[in-house]
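Hi V.,

Quick status before I head out on leave. The structure for the redesign project is tokenized and pasted below; the design run finished overnight.
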């Protein structure tokens, strides 16, 4: 029995080695504080939990749901896009419900990538674009370097690839915490239209932002609807990563392709989860998120300050992100080596190289631990240079 070639093309999981060492240490009774996983520690807001209890108790909410999402869910998404970004999307043809945006990203590539097609993928990045998107669909990932001096935005002028058919972008960005602005988004849309490239814009962290910064939608750019699809998720917005509810909005042909693939592979997210997500989206008033969500972001912001002080104290450079719950810390040199050193003092951080070749020299810390744990971790980290 042999795996299919496309499975064998997936690069070895670089975090596996880290996990193995962490397991060993835990088994030896060593207490580890982990900033490794990008999964919120805070619970969903109480109104979401109330909605879940109610909607799950409704016997009418347990049948198959339509692959593209229930009509009322798509309507609510359309209203939310209008309120939050001022964008019109047709709930009939320009919205699809997703069982998490991860499957949406991969299935979008499945719908539009032919064997050998090039897929432009940032490096460092969320591994799904290169693996689930390009490689599992027999496409070829072509990496676009995200450099600090370019605010972790790809330099599209240097990307000249006649075989490129799709491009993934993600801002607010995992793992760098960088954000985009409309000038860059316009450049990206123009680049996609000039080169016949499908633009997949991953906006999973649009609601996890700090201070005055408000993340834009790609559709705030003229012409984006001709070339782009945008992915949103309730995972990070409402702290419901395990509930698997997200959505794609955008160009009707792209949404149609995505639904054609999905209708052969899965059925829609459960009706009760769609109803819970609808209550979440409707908690926005005049495009503004409810106090519960603002409180979560304020918590991440406080944690970020504590962790950054600790990192800077040991000479690791980092800047306050405008979005996402990650600190992208510049450790320099071999990031695997540096994370092993951290492991030795009981702290888990993700080596940047795990997000792609150009993540080398950095570590990613998730702000998904209480402040007390972060303080304790900072004390431990102070020992590594001693
Ligand atoms: C967490 C995350 C998502 C969301 O994934 P879901 O499948 O919706 O839970 C999407 N993109 C990035 C970059 C992420 O970090």
């Amino acid at each position: 029995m042999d795996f299919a070639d496309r499975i064998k093309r997936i690069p070895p999981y670089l975090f596996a080695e880290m996990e193995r060492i962490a397991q060993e240490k835990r088994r030896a009774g060593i207490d580890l504080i982990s900033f490794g996983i990008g999964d919120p520690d805070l619970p969903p807001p109480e109104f979401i939990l109330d909605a879940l209890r109610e909607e799950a108790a409704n016997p009418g909410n347990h049948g198959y749901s339509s692959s593209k999402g229930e009509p009322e869910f798509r309507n609510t998404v359309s209203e939310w896009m209008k309120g939050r970004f001022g964008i019109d999307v047709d709930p009939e043809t320009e919205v699809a419900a997703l069982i998490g945006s991860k499957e949406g990203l991969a299935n979008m590539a499945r719908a539009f990538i032919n064997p050998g097609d090039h897929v432009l993928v940032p490096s460092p990045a969320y591994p799904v674009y290169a693996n689930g998107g390009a490689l599992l669909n027999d496409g070829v990932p072509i990496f676009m370097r995200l450099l600090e001096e370019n605010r972790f935005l790809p330099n599209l002028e240097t990307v000249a690839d006649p075989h490129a058919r799709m491009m993934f972008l993600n801002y607010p960005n995992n793992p760098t915490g960088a954000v985009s602005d409309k000038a860059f988004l316009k450049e990206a849309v123009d680049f996609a239209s000039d080169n016949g490239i499908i633009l997949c814009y991953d906006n999973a962290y649009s609601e996890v932002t700090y201070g005055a910064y408000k993340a834009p939608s790609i559709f705030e750019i003229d012409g984006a609807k001709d070339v782009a699809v945008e992915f949103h998720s309730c995972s990070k917005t409402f702290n419901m990563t395990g509930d698997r509810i997200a959505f794609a909005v955008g160009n009707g042909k792209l949404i149609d392709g995505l639904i054609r693939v999905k209708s052969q592979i899965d059925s829609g997210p459960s009706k009760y989860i769609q109803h819970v997500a609808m209550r979440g989206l409707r908690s926005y008033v005049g495009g503004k998120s409810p106090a519960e969500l603002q409180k979560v972001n304020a918590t991440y912001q406080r944690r970020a300050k504590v962790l950054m002080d600790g990192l800077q104290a040991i000479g690791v450079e980092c800047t306050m992100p405008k979005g996402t719950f990650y600190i992208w810390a510049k450790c320099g040199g071999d990031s695997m080596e540096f994370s092993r050193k951290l492991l030795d003092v009981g702290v888990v951080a993700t080596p940047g190289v795990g997000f792609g070749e150009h993540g080398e020299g950095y570590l990613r810390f998730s702000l998904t631990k209480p402040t007390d744990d972060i303080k304790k971790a900072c004390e431990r980290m102070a020992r590594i240079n001693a």
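Above is the designed sequence. The mean pLDDT is 96.

G. will cover questions while I'm gone.

Best,
W.
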